[in-house]
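TEACHING EXERCISE
Course module: macromolecular assemblies
Task: Read the component lines below, then compare them to the predicted structure of the full complex.
Student: A.B.
Group: 4
Components provided:
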Amino acid sequence: MLHRKIVKFAVPLAAGVLALSACSSNGKSGGGGKSGGSGGGKTVTIGLQGPLSGANAQLGINVKDGVQLAFNQFNAKPNKPFTVKLATSDDEGDPSKANAAATQLIQNNSIKAVIGPIFSGPTKASEPLYSSASLLSITPSATNPQLTTQGFTSFLQGIANDNLQGKAMADYITKKLTPKPTKVYVIDDKSEYGVGLANVARADLKADGVQVVSDSVPAGTPDYSGPAAKVANSKATALIYAGYYADAAPLAKKLHDAGYTGAVFSDDGAKDPQLVKLAGTAVNNWYLTCPCTDPTVQASTKTFATQYTSTFKTPPSTYSAEGYDEANMLLQQITKLGAGVSRQALLAAMKTADYKGISKEFSFKSTGQFKGTDVWIYQVKSGKITFLGNVNQLVGSAG
Amino acid sequence: MSGGTASEESFRRPKVDVARLRRDAWYRRPRWRRLLGFVVAGLALAVVTGPQGAGSTALMSSLKATFTSVPRLGVCVGIGVLLWAVREFGAPLRAPARTAQDGVARGVAPLRRFYAAGVWPKLAVGALVLLAGAVIPNLLSPTWQVVFVEQMGVYLLLAVGLNVVIGWAGLLDLGFVAFYAVGAYSVAFWTGSLPVQPPVVLNPFVVIPIAVLTCLAAGLLLGTPTLRLRGDYLAIVTLGFHEIVYLVAKNADGFTGGSRGTTKMIPHPSIHLFGLDYNWMFDPLPYWYLILAFTAILVVLFSRLENSRIGRAWTAVREDEVAAQASGLNTVRYKLMAFAIGASTSGLAGVVYASKVGFINPDNFPLLASILVLSYVIFGGMGSIAGVLVGTALLTLLPQWLKSYVPAEDRYMYLGGLLVAMMIFRPQGVIPSRRRQREIKLAESGVGGADATGAAGGTTS
Amino acid sequence: MSSFLDYLTLGIVLGSMYAIFAIGYTLVYGVLQLINFAHSEVFMTGGFVGMIVLTEFAPSRPHGFPSVLWMVIGCLSGMVGGAAIAWCLERVAYRPLRKAHAPRLVFLLSAVGASFFLYNLCGKLFGRTPIQVPSLYTNSVLFHWPGTSVEVRVNQVVVVGAAVVMMIALDRVVNRTKLGSGIRAVAQDAETAGLMGVDIDRVVSRTFVIGGLLGGAAGFLYGYAVSGQVVFTMGFVPGIKAFAAAVLGGIGNVRGAMLGGLLLGVIESFTVPLLGSEWIDVAAFVILVLVLMFRPTGLLGERLGRSA
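Instructor-supplied answer key:
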């Protein structure tokens, strides 16, 4: 009986292996053009750590494509001083997979610097490793303020942290909305990103004398009707939702159904073309803040958007431009220092460097915190995310 | 109802005649129906290995590509038909394989007898495995060393613990990782890495007994009211327990740091004892030795336990709780004991993990993790420590290994397929315990039910 | 008062979706004493098939009768999709194990494996980001609760209406038809039923199909009316809830699943204003544990054969 079983097991297994090798359609995730043969000259490798699979893969892929585009453009230059190659390492957005992903990049001696990690949780987990290896890790998207207070020596936060975005929302609500809301409802999605942002907004609103009503709706909650009804029943005139678009969209629909008519603010996690696609008209007039400029709107970045779209068959999305900028910033520094630069030298140079990218200007405080304090605001108007401007300037001009 | 018992065997000839009398249309005959099955399987293979879809921009792109690329489709269906042909007409092909297998079995038999003879051969094999476990990671790249510690090693501890609960006592626990979380948060608390400060800040090593006791208490707390529930009700209650622990970790911002996790790095463990000074740092290898030592100790302890009075009591509870109770066994007590032992092992794993990585947040402990540990245990072979270890090692390393062969996002699809195939072709697991092997054999021949959860309910068909 | 009615309405809508979803768990449990962990993928399939049919074939803004017709077509295709997957599941992942008289945990792992396989396959084929389900009509207010300002919208009526129709149909199938008595017979004592000439394979297969029809419908209703979008992981959380609902009512008991689903929906809905949305799941599970402590076999007791 047992022997027959083994044969029964072995045959399909062998066949399966055979089939995989025969049938496999080298279906590596679409789009990412090959970075070309090394040609002549030297090759420099840059690492990228982020979620390339799993439920949160989209943000990782956005960044990866932005970086890849920068590298493609660099490698296409006729007089390039070296060839640049991308080495990706997938952490699935999961803190418990982060160290393996980081180690994979650290042990690869040809890697001079790492872009990423993308999420704050994996960043917290793997940053001690990068620090002990003196390998620069520059994140385009991990916004947790705690990341720059823990003494990580090789971490650069290439984005304004949650404190700024939460404050920008609060500022805009108290200074620009007319009539000034007296009661603001703040919802977070229980992700570390949403909670951080919402807490700052709550504190700032309270400091401004606004009454704050709080709720937390965990991401992936099946039904947003209840939370939306609670918002409508609270008689608040403004709402902040701190979370990602996949949850903001159903919330928008339910808010509409519940008859809520106040202003709604959300964050860069929600600022995605998908939000409008999913929620349709329900999301009209939503305000979205982002410490990022919109690559499809600003004149300086229009070329980036067209090239990105033609390469990857999809328009650039959240953090694509940041990835692109950071890649170019690294390339600029490596060009300056030579392809044989050591990790430590590159790290030191990047810490003090100043680079004007298409999304914003990159420079860092000694802790690795982003120097700039700019947050931009957008509004959804008839199915399009339109650019309103820089919150600091808007709020300032309002007095 | 169609198990191949001996009595049925002898009636095979008349049955064929009956079939002839029935005159089924050709396409209704089993052989051709199986061909249909294999062709469908071939098509499924084509779909599964097809290109990645493009989401809402081109909804059907992947399926379209699969069904318009004739060569690939042809190859996949061809494989299906080939397999069918081997299955139907491949008896001569299989014969040599079977004789070879018999030969191997015969060759191995004396070794097996030697192994089963006494305790010394087992100890020798155990020592060899331990030695291999100590040497192998040294030969691997650092990435794999990290994978060994953080993705495999921790789960080895978890699986050894869950094996006590599910493999020996037969309690279906779907919330096992909750205790892992309790252990990890204990170490975070006692090292002062949470928003709430402990009375004294301790070294992670010193926390181990505290964490283990905390988990023990948590296990008793959960177990006392719920262990009277039978099989599947226990499953949902433990699942609920997991959700509750997970959500409390996530929602109690003031205590656990909420979804942002620990506020400070959890310090690495260090030993300062009897003139011995050692600090664990970022290097994964020392942690691997630590895990290896813990696993070895637990394996020895647990296998002593299995053959003790307690182990036999667990078996009795698992096989037939009513009968066990009737013969004077305090079943709740033994169930609690299994539960608590499992919980404290899980807590130990939590301590090791948290102090290695230095950072935890609730996302480290999703419900999926509980289900995965359960899969490792069943896959390896419930009730057999060797099986559980091998199963965990295989399944935790597989996704990492697959990374270089299939698109990363498809790995869990193949893992799922493997689990189903494994359960169909080898339900007893990779290395089954001898008892379970016998049970499944008996069940196959229709004698008794091989029921692990000990439920006395209706028989399955 | 008005907000009480408000949350009650929402709870009933969510609860009726849980209820028809939970029936799939309970039916399979009744017949095989097996937790069909892959039932959440049946739900997901229902959502996806409905979404695909509506996206690919339905006109962009139908008016009047056609919009109702397309709604029904979407729901039916979701049901067929769900049933097809459930049938395949039984054929591939369960029947071989049943023939081998495998222990129940083996079924459990097979179900977990099938679930992993299916939802990842779906993510691969249709992308891993949420996909909108086209809206067929404006989700306007249908009526107000008498004497209050509490609104009831079309989608809410659709979900509850569809659930009620399906539950009545199911109740009749289980209690009045030959197939139903077959199901009850197998649930009570499979061996004896087999000896009495019930074709057990066929009954089990059809039980899965019935569960699949309802699970697919729940998936479609969820995707269309509750969340407005489908994503490959959509089955997981509702699946656990529906399973909890089935246990709450008494697993194996069809009416129990209906009651448990409704109750769970209402509990969740009232948790939002009373405790805050982050405690929804905690409240649901705490109540489940409490109920099981005092009524160890759920509210209505188990056994499909006796009480349904």
